[in-house]
Amino acid sequence: MSSSTLDYSQDPKRPQYDLIIRKDKPFNAEPHIQDLVKHYITPEKYMFVRSHGPVPMHLNDSHSITIHGGINTKQFTVQQLKTQFKKAHVMMAMQCAGNRRDGLHRVKHTKGVIWGAAAVGNTTFAGCRLRDVLHAVGVVSFKNDLHVAFESVEQCEETNCYGSSIPLCKALDEFGDVLLAYEMNGKPLTRDHGYPLRVVVPGYIGARSVKYLKSIIVQDHESTSYFQQRDYKLLPANVDCEKEAEEYWCKVPSIGEFNVQSFVCYPPPTQNDHDMNKFILSQGYALSGGGRGIQRVDVSNDNGETWQVAKLYQPSLTTSAHIWGWCLWTIQLEYKGYPIVCRAVDSAGNVQQEYPVWNYRGVLNNSWRTVNL
């Protein structure tokens, strides 16, 4: 759908946000990188906003979602989900798959919103477990070839509405913590963040956490949505345009979990040398997908010749079997005139790769550059 035919006149006002606007219509914005590590739980004013079209305005607690669970089809209003199912909580890092796209865009033209390194945040969500809702419609076991597809009411620039899917095994996992969320950070979802109901999929790229949920379908294939089949996939490095990509869309899998990564948030890359003290407290974030925590973050102030181990802050909810939240790190360093760089290791021993693999749209293989470009 062309952006010229979409009506943005009813989008919410956003005076409370202290964000860098990366695109006005649809609204896409992220915080200043140094603000990102001021809080372990990211407040709404510093939480990035990813939109594909106008923010739906007609939704409330009477909004209903349809669930197709094979032979059973049921409808629940948001209010029924709140009252008929046990409330659960999850603390998780939400990250746009295009986070840090600006690094590639400096050396190679990319499609999509040109994000910095702050299209990520760590929040708490509350809602009912998707697992419980699927059980209520008779979906109690899974086969490895089944998927749960989500459809949104959000009209998009690229297609009629937003859609995505995850494997059914993730949705039914007792420890997968997938929610149909109606609260963020202890308050009702705002319109920018999915009011009145969204999916949240811990450990997966944000593209799978569908906002403004309309329907859930259990099926024997991935979502046929544009955003599952023709976006958020890793194509060979030689693919440079849409025409060359045609051969590969049906051959490569969609991105699900993200890999281990880290970034230096302070000092920010825009800070001048003459503003630096001899000793500085450097700060940043690290995270990994799949419920893996961060084991170590190494930091270098001499162009990678030597590395020092940073101090980590990574509390987790005691009710969760996995660590879905991010890790904040700090270290006192002598400033030597080089960019400060970092690398992370997660609890499975996966080491952050030094160079990223990109597709032509600037979506990362979640193996990240360790420097502030």
TrEMBL record:
<dbReference type="GO" id="GO:0030151">
    <property type="term" value="F:molybdenum ion binding"/>
</dbReference>
<keyword id="KW-0500">Molybdenum</keyword>
<dbReference type="GO" id="GO:0020037">
    <property type="term" value="F:heme binding"/>
</dbReference>
<dbReference type="Pfam" id="PF00174">
    <property type="entry name" value="Oxidored_molyb"/>
</dbReference>
<keyword id="KW-0479">Metal-binding</keyword>
<dbReference type="GO" id="GO:0006790">
    <property type="term" value="P:sulfur compound metabolic process"/>
</dbReference>
<dbReference type="InterPro" id="IPR008335">
    <property type="entry name" value="Mopterin_OxRdtase_euk"/>
</dbReference>
<keyword id="KW-0560">Oxidoreductase</keyword>
<dbReference type="InterPro" id="IPR000572">
    <property type="entry name" value="OxRdtase_Mopterin-bd_dom"/>
</dbReference>
<dbReference type="GO" id="GO:0005739">
    <property type="term" value="C:mitochondrion"/>
</dbReference>
<dbReference type="InterPro" id="IPR005066">
    <property type="entry name" value="MoCF_OxRdtse_dimer"/>
</dbReference>
<feature type="domain" description="Moybdenum cofactor oxidoreductase dimerisation">
    <location>
        <begin position="254"/>
        <end position="371"/>
    </location>
</feature>
<dbReference type="Pfam" id="PF03404">
    <property type="entry name" value="Mo-co_dimer"/>
</dbReference>
<dbReference type="InterPro" id="IPR014756">
    <property type="entry name" value="Ig_E-set"/>
</dbReference>
<dbReference type="GO" id="GO:0043546">
    <property type="term" value="F:molybdopterin cofactor binding"/>
</dbReference>
<dbReference type="GO" id="GO:0008482">
    <property type="term" value="F:sulfite oxidase activity"/>
</dbReference>
<dbReference type="InterPro" id="IPR036374">
    <property type="entry name" value="OxRdtase_Mopterin-bd_sf"/>
</dbReference>
<feature type="domain" description="Oxidoreductase molybdopterin-binding">
    <location>
        <begin position="52"/>
        <end position="226"/>
    </location>
</feature>
<protein>
    <recommendedName>
        <fullName>Sulfite oxidase</fullName>
    </recommendedName>
</protein>
